[in-house]
Amino acid sequence: MKDAFGAPQSLLVLGGTSEIGLATARRLIARRTRTVWLAGRPSPALTGAADSLRALGAAVHTVPFDALDTDSHEERLGKIFTEGGPAGDVDMVLLAFGVPGDQARDESDPVAAVRVAQTNYTGAVSAGLVCAGALQAQGHGSLVVLSSVAGERARRADFIYGSSKAGLDAFAQGLGDALHGTGVHVMVVRPGSVRSKTTAGLAEGPLATTPEAVASAIELGLRRRSETVWVPGALRVVMAAVRHAPRPLFRRLPV
Ligand SMILES: NC(=O)c1ccc[n+]([C@@H]2O[C@H](COP(=O)([O-])OP(=O)(O)OC[C@H]3O[C@@H](n4cnc5c(N)ncnc54)[C@H](OP(=O)(O)O)[C@@H]3O)[C@@H](O)[C@H]2O)c1
After folding, report:
1. 242 lies in which domain range?
2. CATH code, domain carrying 19
3. pTM of this prediction?
């Protein structure tokens, strides 16, 4: 059960090696989280991630999960909820998996482009619905979805990724409305550019942030029961302007 400040006792991370997912898990373990499930593609990185959280005192389980294998989601993820943790429930699900793709390559490789779309959008629709149904059956819990500022308005530089995040974002907003009043809270998180292994070496904008800053914003959003969180918060205003910029101007913006 979450406490009065929205801090979960148990956490399921979909995308168990995600830097943002792990920064969030570390932050929540430092507060109150005692049980963590890391769902992801089996790898030494997943095992290492579980060990790193165990070292902080949490009981950590790894669960095989592939976003692209949607036929397996109901059974794989459903089982976590039915088997439960020591307290029986999963208080928070963090949907943290995703791939940026390689825009230049993917434009000439439709199969690779579809893989980006299927991972980030259809994989998330499937996993999101399975987890939302299970949270609803519990009668409480938060589903936190890592969208992206890239989904707010697709840019020439990364419109394959951006369009997948736009779909995910719209899906998560609609799901949040569908679950309003059920006790289940859906929170959409829109980080800007996050300094991480994925973005190492890439040019970063003035509003670049860190996995730890995203984790901190998620914790605050849980406490406030926010529906939308921008990281950094200034992006809310910046993107309100960018969203309405005329196309010829938008094409020249360095965002
Ligand atoms: N980093 C940024 O600048 C940024 C900005 C805005 C939004 N976001 C979003 O925030 C989320 C987390 O980002 P991050 O920076 O923490 O990324 P990350 O460290 O690269 O982690 C991505 C995660 O996605 C998992 N994944 C990829 N394909 C998968 C699949 N088919 N099945 C299951 N898991 C799969 C990876 O697992 P493997 O270990 O198996 O590869 C990894 O756990 C993503 O959705 C990303 O789009 C990131």
Report:
1. 10-250
2. 3.40.50.720
3. 0.96
